Amino acid sequence: MRGPEFSYSPNSGPGAERRIPIWQRSIEIEDIISDNESPEAQRRRESSLQSLESNDETVVARCADARYQLTWERITTIPTVATGKPSARYKGRFQQNHVPGIIELPHLNCGGLTVRGNQEIHGVAENAPDSHRFVAEYVPESDPGRQALRSAREDSLLVEKPVLAAVHNHDNGDIYTLAVYRNGKPDYSRELIGSFQRFFRQ
Q: Which of 190, 157, 137, 166 is nearest to 61 (CA)?
């Protein structure tokens, strides 16, 4: 997958005719994983933690698609391709004291899930781009509902916190809730469902 090659041309002064390329290389699989672990990302997280010490901050694992319509407050997002990720890498983030729960939120009409569906039929081509290899390794399901449920179960086995499995419709902003997991099993107790009440439409 190759990024767009935007250029910048100064309007005046020395170098006015010079065009400066901004993006010159392909995205590699480690770029996708390490983006959330860069020094700048770490700095932003530390700053966020300092300002949110007394507040709840639910972690939302979402696709990196720009069409999401999330207006929730007190959340932090983990954007990846089709919500795929090596969950163990985020265990420390999930375990932080001010995080009461996690939401796994893939979306409808997801390009990454479409890629996964094609891979289920045709396999992964030897010359597949790294973004497709990322999908093959970290996105186990092609259906957004199954992807949400599977990811929620895996997260709930890592940390003793509730994990909501849901699907987002970016066309109208609707959220379709599926289940809440705890310790690897669905848990429909009133108390646990209530912990996510602020995310549901009244």
A: 166
pLDDT tens, position by position, 25-45: 455 666 666 666 677 677 666
Residue type, 128: A
- Residue whose token pair is 């860069």: 38
**Which burial class, exposed, middle or buried, applies to 141 when counting CB atoms under 10 A from its CB (0-12, 13-18, 19+)?**
buried
Number of independent structural domains in the chain: 1
Largest CA distance in the chain: 67
> Which CATH number characterizes residue 99's domain?
3.40.1050.10
Residue 119 domain-assigned (yes or no)? yes
Joined together, the tokens standing for residue 98 give 């001010």
Is 12 inside a domain boundary? no
Is 50 a member of any domain?
no
pLDDT digits (tens, 9 = 90+) for 106-148: 999 999 999 999 999 999 988 999 889 999 999 999 999 999 9
Q: 161, 102 in Cβ contact below 8 A?
A: yes
Cβ contact 181:165 at 8 Å? yes
Q: What is the pTM of this model?
A: 0.71
Q: How far apart are CA 78 and CA 181, in angstroms?
A: 19
CA distance 188 to 17: 64
Position 131 in a domain: yes
Beta-strand runs (E) in 5-156 = 7-8, 20-21, 58-63, 75-80, 102-105
